[in-house]
């Protein structure tokens, strides 16, 4: 394998192909049914849906924890198991999944990304140490490498796990709620890093409730509720109509227009859609179509909380 | 004076007791590093009590005691899994019911056949009187476990820390967890001989807990825990010659003393360090 996290094995073209996938748990609950979407290299894709819509099930099947009852998943053209064996899939966990009291230092955690590149006894070589250092430097966490992980702030913790994904050399990176409990500055840093990784040709799938920031950095969106309701480029897929289908009543939807907003006969409307995190704010002629065309009169603002 | 101090080493049974105790103490301490991090400490206790009937029956029908212990530990684990899946009861309740049941059956077997096995040696351990063929069993169990742990400690650490990551680097968490519990059962069986069923729990919890207060690195945690496990066990066995007291009791008292020392004096996580930090006017800002 290559020594630098940035380099990519030549024959690998990161992609995810989910075809008609159904996941059923042993208690008989069908978590996902007939889900299909496809993503290619150099992509940041948002995975959007209410809690319990099957987002985590989808992540689990991409990481091979659950086997689909029907359908097929391919990562970089390989079976999930093969892709995992080659270290192609990296995972950035939610903060709640991690035991922050575990006696490991920042650099130990990042080194865990290198295990797949080491021998049976997991003895790191100089190349592994260098890769860990580079990955930490890239997320600006090098000065913290000897801290115990629980001593870090929320944003720093996220960056450590991103560094682990980098050190692993993952070409397909799954991020589970990367912006939860993170301040705006860190969110911007993470987004900037993700853009760099996209420029390197990597594929990132991000599950998030931060609807407002999705159009900023995601070029693809998969909207899910037990099945894939819509998938495609953000501009055409991430519409209030699709979101309404996915979230139904679970979404706060505020619309202002006419006399409430304008003193004249302006027909433009202000639409605020929120999943209790950073809301999506739209301003334009008609809420559903406003996002669709580049030439539509559209002003999007960020309402940061 | 020197002669008196060296006296235990003149006896073969004392030499044996010291090195067997040290070996078992070391492996149990190794396992304790993992067990205490997962909130599974009581599993060690449950296993230790659950294997008693197996040991009693094995002595009764002249099988190697390790085989009986292992089978009965397996049955206990299955019973716990069954009760848990079939009822809504909490884990501690299930453990409590199953291990006391097994322990009771064990005591019953022993009391019905008092000649076959000494109940005291199961419950309290009897390393000073360990039979040579039992020494071989204990040494093989502990030695093999130690080798496996030395080879796989990093993989086990990853599984205990982050199962998802373990999978993404190609490990099988379920298989490694099963491996861990097999090792734990095996070492519980071995520790039965040194400290007895009642005190096994201390051997597989205390050294790791003490080391946890002393370091933030897993590798050092293991090194510290194993050092403490080996030294307390060897010293406990050695001193039991003079005090004519329970070896298990001594070992565990020493382990607890070390824990108390760490609890008060540990450089970063001890009470004194915490008090010092609280006295400081402004805590060090984290950039």
What is the CATH top level name of the domain at 27-201 in chain B? Mainly Alpha
- What is the second-level CATH architecture of the largest domain in chain A? 3-Layer(aba) Sandwich
Q: What is the count of distinct domains of chain A? A: 2
Mean pLDDT of chain B: 88
For the secondary structure, the number of strands of chain A is 14
Top-tier CATH class of the largest domain in chain A: Alpha Beta
The most extensive interface between chains reads: A-B, 34 and 24 residues
- Average pLDDT of chain A: 84
Strand content of chain B: under 5%
Stretches of chain B where pLDDT is under 50 for at least 5 consecutive residues are none
Structural class of chain B: mainly alpha
Radius of gyration of chain A: 20 Å
> For the report, how would you describe the main beta sheet of chain A?
6 strands, mixed
Give the helix level of chain A as a range of percent: 25-40%
Q: Give the SSE order of chain A as H and E letters.
A: EEEHEEHEHHHEHEHEEHHEEEHE
Provide the CATH superfamily of the domain at 27-201 in chain B: ABC transporter involved in vitamin B12 uptake, BtuC
Q: What would the CATH topology of the domain at 27-201 in chain B be?
A: ABC transporter involved in vitamin B12 uptake, BtuC
Supply the number of helical segments of chain B. 15
> Termini separation of chain A (Å)?
43 Å
Sheet with most strands: strand arrangement of chain A = 6-7-8-3-9-10
